[in-house]
Amino acid sequence: MLNVQEILSSITPLVLNQNDIIFKEGDSPDRSMFFIFTGEISLTKISADKKEHTIRVLKTGEFFGEMGLVNNISRALTARVHSPNAKLGVMNKDALIQNYRDLNNDMDILQFIQNVPVKRYAEGETIFEENVPSDGNMYFVFSGEISIQKHYNGNPKEIRVQDTGTFFGEVALIGRSPRTATAKIKSASAEIGILNEQHFIKIAKMNPAFLLDVLKVIIERVSQAEGKVDRLIQELYGHKE
User: Fold this and answer.
1) Are residue 79 and residue 52 in the same domain, yes or no?
2) Which residue among 22, 98, 186, 203 has the highest number of C-beta atoms inside a 10 angstrom radius?
3) What gap in Å lies between CA 18 and CA 21, rounded to an integer?
4) What is the pLDDT of residue 84?
């Protein structure tokens, strides 16, 4: 049985200074993802106008570079140290795969959360908003659809839709940074399970595989979402011939 210590042992510490580059847009994948222990990391992209635009600044408790674990494609963004210094944790794909070998990849995540509180929402209701301080909760969709949106130049853009059997808001259990997106009910109604930190820790202690199952879904989700970055940048900054 996999335990938390095995997960932690696959993470290598890395100390960097301001403006140090972790990877550049277009670099070959190095089969690694990164966790921010301290400091800030800026993610930038070159748009059609050949200018570098900051997509986001990540802070302590967040992570980046997930596509290096799931796809053998070039880096889509440049990652650079934004703060005076930063301490990162590097997780290598080979170590992660080794940890997964004894797991059932078809595991149903809902089996872990049958006893969490459930709240019913109506269409259009907001569960949480982008940039609002986190309440420390993670959410599971028992029924219905949830629209996950981010604001670009003041306009909301739907980046994905969560349906029955999926979860969202998981970053609130990893770090206490503000919400990175807005979650709104898209269907006529929805039943949402609410998992706080205490529930999460209890489940993780009983089922250590749950931790990696959550990480796996996060990686797959971000991989899909980052596929939309080029289109958003083109829409915001691109120029028609």
Assistant:
1) yes
2) 22
3) 9
4) 96
